[in-house]
Write a structure and sequence with these properties.
mainly alpha, 1 helix
């Protein structure tokens, strides 16, 4: 079972491709943003 709360910032990733996630947002942040938009 994945734990997306562990990797919502790109600096928390132990490995990341150099051409992806160049900003602060990690790959799982979008999931939390979508949940927030759905709730209200």
């Amino acid at each position: 079972m994945p734990h997306p709360e562990r990797l919502f910032h790109s600096v928390q990733m132990s490995y990341k491709p150099t051409d992806q996630f160049t900003g602060e947002a990690g790959p799982w942040l979008k999931m939390f943003q979508n949940a927030r938009a759905y709730v209200g």
